[in-house]
UniProtKB/TrEMBL annotation:
Main location: cytoplasm
UniProt lineage: Eukaryota, Metazoa, Chordata, Craniata, Vertebrata
Full protein name: U6 small nuclear RNA (adenine-(43)-N(6))-methyltransferase
Organism of origin: Anabas testudineus
Binding locations of S-adenosyl-L-methionine: 82, 106, 129, 180
Function in brief: RNA N6-methyltransferase that methylates adenosine residues at the N(6) position of a subset of RNAs and is involved in S-adenosyl-L-methionine homeostasis by regulating expression of MAT2A transcripts. Able to N6-methylate a subset of mRNAs and U6 small nuclear RNAs (U6 snRNAs). In contrast to the METTL3-METTL14 heterodimer, only able to methylate a limited number of RNAs: requires both a 5'UACAGAGAA-3' nonamer sequence and a specific RNA structure.
PANTHER family for the chain: RNA N6-ADENOSINE-METHYLTRANSFERASE METTL16, SAM-DEPENDENT METHYLTRANSFERASE
Biased composition (Low complexity): 410-447
A Pfam entry, by short name: Methyltransf_10
Stored CDD domains: AdoMet_MTases
EC annotation from Swiss-Prot or TrEMBL: 2.1.1.-
GO cellular component, one term: cytoplasm
One record GO biological process: positive regulation of RNA metabolic process
Region Disordered: start-end pairs: 389-479
Length: 544
């Protein structure tokens, strides 16, 4: 389970991630969703709704004593993220254990915020819900955990936020309001069309949820604007009636956002409406980021500090790394020797294998000076070739199988003579063909870079064709072309995804690979490449 050191300091999972092995041994329903990775670690497939639900239910039971039920067709919350939100609300209202009153807009089937707030802090909750299925499950989850005295679940009409929900409430002042707005405006956005940057990797977890939970007219931006409008109306209504001499019904209004781009326009809307107190933060948990916005009309509330930019810079500087243990290095050295590497140390062998993989992926790279007994490569990724590599290879093999083949027949002496002179001609023609293809696919690279890359691509293409015995091609052994000939001047590549420094270092009997971010559009792409290289090397060891 990917967690983040930038999680809220009080989040129980910040320094102690869930122990999947222990949880699997204790909870049979969770055990069936735990698998062993190539490195021997227990993992859960977050793209399976059943696995996500099992993990959420298991963590709530183990760490909070809560027993809940969630239908697969409704939103399945992740516990670390919800805890981050709860702890931030604690910061807003400046008190964890005192009796507080809160509103949860759209509590969902799990009713997770009220259940956590009531269990951890003894908070009272008014939880609203528009969906019949979610309302029934939320009510049941509250009752079976004996928390009906702290949590009131109410069914409200569609498009109801605060105004109508508070009509029949006798309580005048609430300490806070929480909300997970529907992120998307329509089905296309929910599927990532026109709403997700093309450079971003695909989501690492499944997207579950009913229509009312994930979609609303105008998406989260318009949804939160409606809450802002309701908060302004409530403020005016209570000032007009002078109930208990209070000018507000809620000390802090807050929402969690799924898109960072929603934060700025909402802050601008609050500024235009003259809201005096505004706070925002980030929720960091693994690869998932969320943003939260809160506002208040009270003069006596304290606004928490915004996210620490120094922390963000340190996160960017921290290298990605993985370790190859002594047990598998001998196999890797043998594999490096098989491709023509005359390396004498494990570091050199691993470096040679990494260079070959990078060449296959068309990632530009060159060796740069480094400390003794180490190797360093400067990488420039121009296109994302490491995503869905397995599917691409299967498709290539399928296309090769479907190529028309000439009928088997004995060669004449003249054909044999021509074939004997074919390798040089074939290699030259293949190189010319690949050169034109590379030129059209990668216009950003300079001529020297393309020249070096075309040599390696030419060899790889010829090797692939001979491997599948394509008619008319002569089998030949193609050695890995060193990439010292490739011009890797950073100024020669105008358009790139990212640049990084890859270090291969000895550590006692093991070898450690580190990737240091230099510049680019998205650090997640470097993370993906690091994972690809790690898995490729580990598979080599496993197959051996």
């Amino acid at each position: 389970m990917a967690l983040n050191k930038s999680m809220h300091p009080r989040n129980r999972y910040k320094d102690k991630p869930p122990d999947f092995t222990y949880l699997a041994s204790k909870y049979p329903d969770f055990q069936q969703h735990v698998h062993t990775s190539l490195t021997g670690r227990p993992v859960v497939n977050f793209k399976e709704p059943e696995a996500v639900r099992a993990l959420t239910c298991t963590l709530l039971k183990e760490d909070f004593g809560l027993t809940i039920e969630i239908p697969l067709e409704r939103l399945i919350p992740t516990v670390p993220l919800r805890l981050n939100y709860i702890h931030w609300v604690e910061d807003l209202i400046d008190g964890q254990k005192q009796p507080r009153r809160g509103i949860d807009i759209g509590t969902g089937a799990s009713c997770i915020y009220p259940l956590l707030g009531a269990t951890m802090n003894g908070w009272y909750f008014l939880a609203t819900e528009v969906d019949d299925i979610c309302f029934n499950y939320a009510t049941k989850n509250v009752e079976q955990n004996n928390l009906s005295d702290l949590i009131k679940v109410v069914k409200v009409p569609q498009k109801t936020l605060l105004m109508d929900a508070l009509k029949e409430e006798t309580e005048i002042v609430y300490d806070f309001c929480m909300c997970n707005p529907p992120f998307f405006a329509n089905q296309l956005e929910a599927k990532g069309v026109n709403s997700r940057n093309s450079r971003r990797p695909p989501p690492s977890s499944v997207n579950t949820g009913g229509v009312t939970e994930i979609m609303a007219e105008g998406g989260e931006l318009e949804f939160v604007k409606r809450i802002i409008h309701d908060s302004l109306q409530l403020k005016k209504r209570l000032r007009h009636t002078q109930l208990l001499n209070m000018d507000f019904s809620c000390r802090w209004y807050s929402c969690m956002l799924g898109k960072k781009c929603s934060l700025a326009p909402l802050k601008e809307e609050l500024r235009k409406q003259g809201v005096p107190k505004v706070a925002h933060t980030e929720f960091c948990q693994g690869r998932t980021m969320r943003w939260a916005l809160a506002w208040s009309f009270c003069d006596d509330v304290i606004v928490p500090s915004p996210p620490n930019k120094k922390r963000k810079l340190e996160k960017m500087r921290k290298p990605l790394s993985f370790t190859l243990t002594e047990a598998g290095l001998k196999e890797l050295q043998a594999k490096a020797s098989a491709i023509g590497c005359a390396a004498h140390s494990p570091v050199d062998s691993v470096t040679a294998l990494l260079e070959k993989n990078l060449t296959d992926l068309r990632v530009l790279h060159k060796r740069v000076p480094c400390r003794k007994q180490e190797q360093s490569l400067f990488l420039t990724a121009v296109e994302n070739t490491w995503i869905h590599g397995r599917q691409k290879r299967r498709e290539q093999k399928r296309q090769l199988r479907e190529l028309p083949r000439a009928p088997h027949c004995a060669k004449t002496s003249s054909e044999t003579a021509v074939a004997s002179t074919a390798p040089a001609t074939t290699s030259a023609s293949t190189q010319t063909s690949n050169s034109s293809e590379d030129s059209s696919e990668n216009k950003a690279a300079s001529a020297p870079e393309l020249a070096g890359q075309q040599q390696t691509d030419s060899g790889a293409s010829s090797s692939e064709k001979s491997k599948h015995n394509i008619p008319g091609e002569q089998k030949e052994v193609v050695e890995h072309v060193p990439d010292e000939d490739v011009d890797m001047d950073s100024g020669s590549v105008e358009h790139f995804l990212f640049k990084c420094l890859l270090n291969v270092m000895p550590e006692e009997s093991d070898v450690v690979i580190e990737m240091h971010w230099v510049e680019g559009h998205n650090k997640d792409l470097m993370n993906q490449l690091c994972t690809y290289l790690k898995n490729t090397l580990l598979k080599s060891v496993t197959k051996s």
